[in-house]
Amino acid sequence: MSGRLEGKIALITGAAGGLGQAMARRMAEEGARLALTDIDEAGARALADAINADHPDAAFAYAHDVTDEGQWIDVIERAVSDLGGLSVLVNNAGIGGELKPVVETDLDAWRRVQAINVESVMLGCKHAIPHLAKSGRGSIVNISSIAGLTATPGMGPYNASKAAVWLFSKTVALECAKARNGVRSNSVHPVFIKTGILDPFVAMAGGDEAVAHDKLARGIPLKRIGEPDDVAWCVVYLASDESKFITGAEFKIDGGMSAQ
Questions:
Q1: Cα-to-chain-centroid distance, residue 167
Q2: Which domain of life does the protein's organism represent (predicted)?
Q3: pLDDT tens for residues 167-209?
């Protein structure tokens, strides 16, 4: 099915990490050109170089603090200039935060999670929508979490942030539909995926990754945790015109966990 994203230009935040890397590689394979952004500029540039080795001139990298509105404006303008437009925004950057009960939650730690996980999504949509609309058929893919749909003790800041991304994605979808600007907005909700976000759980298991992953998998009907590509292929679909009649929806990538 090569070529599913031919002609698409996508900006992916948090591209230097596990999910971002997987999305970028799969989207490039399907023909998209990419603006890869991350606060880890070296990591984003290394990924762009690797992609360009297989797909020449397909990827550009930019340093990007997603909590800074000025940087959002600058990065989008540079991406549009370098790539010739913008048709897909993937708001992927995010953090897990501390695993503590509410009564022990530090306010500054709470605010940091909301700034990175929620405010960045708003800023991305705010400044990308005018450019996405010019593409004629734009797509916004906001990475939420199954933790935005079901609560877990000790994960208050993360639960709240990902729930906000879920409902905000629907607001954006309805506003864009009302404006008839051709832009769709959907959210993606992974369960535990083999990325750095599971590091706190590994630490709680004494540093034994296999033990941590096995414990997390017990509550999932398919009895395994997810791979980054499990999420990446969903993003490819939502970025493509195959999903042109889908907006305001949530996609659960959770091995059946939320069906219980």
A1: 15
A2: Bacteria
A3: 999 999 999 999 999 999 999 999 988 877 777 777 877 877 8
Question: What are the angstrom distances between the C-alpha of 227 and each of 52, 62, 196, 233?
Answer: 24, 26, 12, 11
Is 64 exposed, middle or buried, given 0-12, 13-18 or 19+ CB atoms closer than 10 A?
Answer: buried
Residue type, 191: V
| Residues 60, 256: Cα–Cα separation, whole Å | 36
Q: Which of 60, 62, 72, 158 is catalytic?
A: 158
Closest CA to 28 of 60, 57, 61, 51: 51
pLDDT at 45: 98
Structural domains for the chain: 9-191+227-255 (3.40.50.720), 195-225 (no CATH)
- Helical H runs in 5-68? 18-29, 41-54
| Amino acid present at 159 | N
Residue 1: pLDDT band with limits 50, 70, 90: very low
Which residue, chain included where needed, has tokens 């890869």? 36
pLDDT in tens, 217-250: 888 999 998 999 999 999 999 999 999 999 999 9
| 35 against 208, higher pLDDT | 35
Active site residue 237: no
CA distance readout (Å), 237 to 214, 223, 244, 255: 29, 25, 10, 18
User: Strand runs (DSSP E) across 64-219, as ranges?
Assistant: 88-91, 138-143, 183-190
